[in-house]
Structures are given as structure tokens and as C-alpha cells.
Design goal:
The chain is α/β, with parallel strands linked by helices. It folds into 2 domains: 3-129, 3-Layer(aba) Sandwich (Rossmann fold); 157-367, 3-Layer(aba) Sandwich (Rossmann fold), CATH 3.40.50. The chain is built from 12 helices and 16 strands. Helix 4 (86-98) links the parallel strand 4 and strand 5 (102-105). It is elongated. The model is unreliable at 137-170 (pLDDT under 50).
Amino acid sequence: MAVRVLVVDDSRFFRRRVTEILEADPQIKVIDSAENGMEAVSKASRLKPDVITMDVEMPVMDGITATRKIMASHPTAILMFSSLTTDGARATLDALDAGAVDFLPKRFEDISNDREESKKILCERVRAVGKVRRSPVRPTVTPRATPSSTRSDIPVRGTSGITSGAAPAHRSINIALKKGQTKLVAIGTSTGGPVALQNVLKQLPARFPVPIVLVQHMPGTFTNAFAQRLNSTCAINVREAQDGDQLEAGLALLAPGGQQMIIEKKAGRDIVRIMDSEPGQNYKPCVDITFCSVAKLYPGKLLAVVLTGMGADGREGARLIKQGGSSVWAQDEASCVVYGMPAAVVDAGIVDQILPLDDIGKALAEKV
């Protein structure tokens, strides 16, 4: 059955362009379009599409407000089109907080220099998120975390609904991981990752005992804003990684978009190196590249976590991590926006634990 799509944008030209691209895919059917958020809310209720492509800035009602209203009453997989600017990054993150599942640059040239490749990526993304079945999302407020807080009062949308605003009932998670064994946590993710990472990191105490490195597929103009967003909602410190940074306990470093991040040892210290991507590297940043670098430095003392995302990035790096005697966790299918990256490591037989998203942060806090 074809994925049914509602295209929302105030530009008639852009609506027509997106419609033509999507309709060229036999697995996608554009059922209607809307020129503002208010019209989108109405048509979402009446037509019940599988996917909505949504612009951020529109007259009458903007895309973020429309997303929030749709997710509260008629949950739908919403794919945002965003400008690659600092303001566009913040607006896109607001849209993801409101319930959107993913985003793409509005300028197709920013998706890929190859026009046909851009079209292919758009259709692949629509087909992937079209498989998501949404649950209502309540409006959230994310105040600044205090050092003594783990921010359990912040509601975070999960892929199968949302967690309660109250702290979840504590339950011990049975994982064979000795305390003190892990010296670094490395997390890789893609589609659905911004919300998933917030869910995981907000459950960690300010004095989390080991460093964390994060790799999220995201454009370069987005990662700094995303790191600031995470830092404002988590008890641990989070920032975009810079070349020469040192790993520190209780600090999560996010790989900058458009580049690659590795960890190397220098003068007895673990140092971040940020490098330009080489031709042919599809993911910028790439989970495999970061995972492979830490696999060599932390044999038997590393915990890798693979969260929601399209494709198989992270599988080969996780394989090296596992071969070195360290542990690999994966997010379970039910809580993923797209069960691609976790499925790749599960199917490869290199996973020690498969956990629901809501349990991963708790397990890290308990076992690390």
C-alpha cells in the first residue's frame, strides 16, 4: 500500500515541486496539499495521511504550531522542511519537540549536490517515516536543568507515546555490566535521534562518572544549537565537540555536523580530533568512524549504544567494539522512529542488550 502524503507549504511552486518528486515514486501517493498550518490541521483531521511534509514559516499558522496541534489530536508522522541557518536549526528543534519525527533541508541542493540523489533521499525518508504510528503528544516545557537535578520532570516524547511528566517508577534493569568496567559511553543515532538523545541524557546524574561521545546525523549549522538544547535540559554538561577537546566525566561531546570526529590518545590524555570528511563518506558525521576510533582506545572498557535511525551506520564500528571485548546496546524496535541502525547491529549478532528507549538512560545511570 502506498504511503499517503499531505504536502504543506505556503509556496505554490514548492508544493508542486515536492508533489512531483513524491508522485514519481510508485510507493508514495500525494493525497492533497495545504498552504498554511491551519489548513494543514483541518486536512490532517479529515484525510488522515500517513505522512505530512511541513514548512516551518507560513502565514495564518506556522508549522510548529500546526505540528503541535496535529500531534495532540491526530498523531501523524511529520517531516519538516528547514532552512540551514541558526534560526532554522532552533525552529526545527522546536518542531521536533512538538512531535515531528524528522527534517530535511528545504533547499534540495543542501541535501545532495546530485539532483536525482536529493529526490531519492526525500522519497526514502517519506517511505521510512510513513511506517511510524504515532501517539498523542502533550505540550512540553523544558526549563533549564539545575546541577542537582536529573530533569525527570521534563516530559519527553517517545516513539510510542510520551512519558509522564512525573518521574517514572524506578525498576532495576538486569544487565550484566560491572560497575567501574566502563570508561567511555559512545552513542550513535540518526532519524528520531534528537528526541531519543534527550530522553536518554536527561536521566543521567550531573556527576555521571565517565565521558560520553555523541554522533547524530545532522547538518553543521544544527549541531551547536542541538548541543545547547541538550545542555539546557540535562543535568550533565553537553556541548558541540571542538578539535583538541579532552574527554571528561559528566561531559557529553556532540560530533559537529558536516565533519568527522575521532578520539586519539596524546600525552596520556584522550583528545578529540575533528576532521573534514573524505570523498565518498555518506554520513557527516559518521557513527562508524567515531566507534572505530574508540574501539582501539578502550578495549573491554567501552559501552556503545545504537539508537533509532535509517541505514546501518554504526554496525561495523560496533563490530570492532564487540570484538575488543566491550558491550553494545541497541534500542528496541517498538520505541524506534526508524528501526534501521539498531536492526543492523541486532541482525549482525553483536548486541548484548536490546532496550526500550525509556530504559536506556536508567540503565546507564544504574550500571555505569
